């Protein structure tokens, strides 16, 4: 019904009338200032007028000052002449006594804590000194072990050179032995056990340098090296020139 009445009065449907209203009524509905759309202009009057009730109530609230107004350090504020009569000396003395006891207890607590901290600092200093001494001792022992390991490596290199020389001499010894008569020939010379003993000594030295202890039975003496050559004794014969 409303649509019929509006259409009959204007001759245009409500939707079209709305669009036509938007197109034609924009200039009267809002103003454009550059890119800013002004919906409602502000009031020219002051927002906080003197007739505002809340502002009057705030102004009626009295100001509260301390008993000693001079403590605020503001111009125009002075203590009243009868202030000494209003303040009781006993109450001030009690307040001062309470403050004295309070600060005394905390001073004793802080002194005890300072003593405890000082003792702990001394203990830590002692432990650090002992630790540094142990580190220096371990460093010196490691330097000694390093020198010993270097000497052992030198001895190992010399033994390897000796092994190579013996291997080079072994065929010559065999050839010389073949030149002898059969009754004067020596048994064949074997250096396998000697080389095995050398390798065992090198492994024993490496284990000692790495920190493991080797028993005395594993250490090979020079007598055992001579016995490992497996050279059978022969009968001595004296040659007398006639």
TrEMBL record:
<dbReference type="InterPro" id="IPR018780">
    <property type="entry name" value="TBORCS5"/>
</dbReference>
<keyword id="KW-0175">Coiled coil</keyword>
<feature type="coiled-coil region">
    <location>
        <begin position="142"/>
        <end position="172"/>
    </location>
</feature>
<keyword id="KW-0449">Lipoprotein</keyword>
<dbReference type="GO" id="GO:0099078">
    <property type="term" value="C:BORC complex"/>
</dbReference>
<keyword id="KW-0472">Membrane</keyword>
<protein>
    <recommendedName>
        <fullName>BLOC-1-related complex subunit 5</fullName>
    </recommendedName>
</protein>
<dbReference type="GO" id="GO:1903744">
    <property type="term" value="P:positive regulation of anterograde synaptic vesicle transport"/>
</dbReference>
<dbReference type="GO" id="GO:0030672">
    <property type="term" value="C:synaptic vesicle membrane"/>
</dbReference>
<dbReference type="GO" id="GO:0072384">
    <property type="term" value="P:organelle transport along microtubule"/>
</dbReference>
<dbReference type="GO" id="GO:0032418">
    <property type="term" value="P:lysosome localization"/>
</dbReference>
<comment type="similarity">
    <text>Belongs to the BORCS5 family.</text>
</comment>
<dbReference type="Pfam" id="PF10158">
    <property type="entry name" value="LOH1CR12"/>
</dbReference>
<keyword id="KW-0458">Lysosome</keyword>
<dbReference type="GO" id="GO:0098574">
    <property type="term" value="C:cytoplasmic side of lysosomal membrane"/>
</dbReference>
């Amino acid at each position: 019904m409303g649509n019929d009445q509006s259409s009959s009065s204007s001759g245009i449907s409500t939707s079209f009338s709305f669009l036509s209203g938007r197109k034609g009524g924009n200039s009267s509905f809002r103003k454009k200032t550059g890119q800013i759309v002004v919906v409602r202009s502000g009031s020219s009057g002051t927002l906080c007028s003197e007739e505002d009730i809340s502002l009057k109530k705030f102004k009626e609230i009295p100001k509260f000052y301390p008993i000693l107004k001079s403590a605020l350090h503001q111009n125009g504020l002075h203590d009243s002449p009868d202030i000494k009569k209003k303040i009781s000396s006993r109450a001030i003395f009690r307040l001062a006594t309470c403050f004295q006891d309070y600060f005394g207890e905390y001073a004793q607590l802080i002194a005890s804590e300072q003593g405890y901290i000082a003792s702990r600092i001394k203990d830590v200093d002692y432990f650090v000194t002992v630790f540094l001494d142990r580190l220096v001792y371990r460093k010196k022992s490691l330097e000694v072990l390093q020198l010993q390991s270097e000497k052992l490596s030198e001895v190992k290199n010399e033994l390897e050179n000796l092994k190579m020389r013996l291997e080079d001499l072994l065929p010559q010894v065999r050839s010389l032995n073949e030149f002898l008569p059969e009754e004067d020939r020596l048994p064949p010379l074997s250096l396998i056990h000697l080389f095995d003993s050398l390798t065992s000594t090198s492994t024993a030295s490496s284990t000692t340098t790495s920190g493991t202890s080797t028993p005395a039975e594993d250490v090979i003496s020079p007598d055992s090296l001579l016995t490992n050559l497996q050279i059978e004794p022969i009968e001595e014969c004296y040659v007398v020139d006639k």
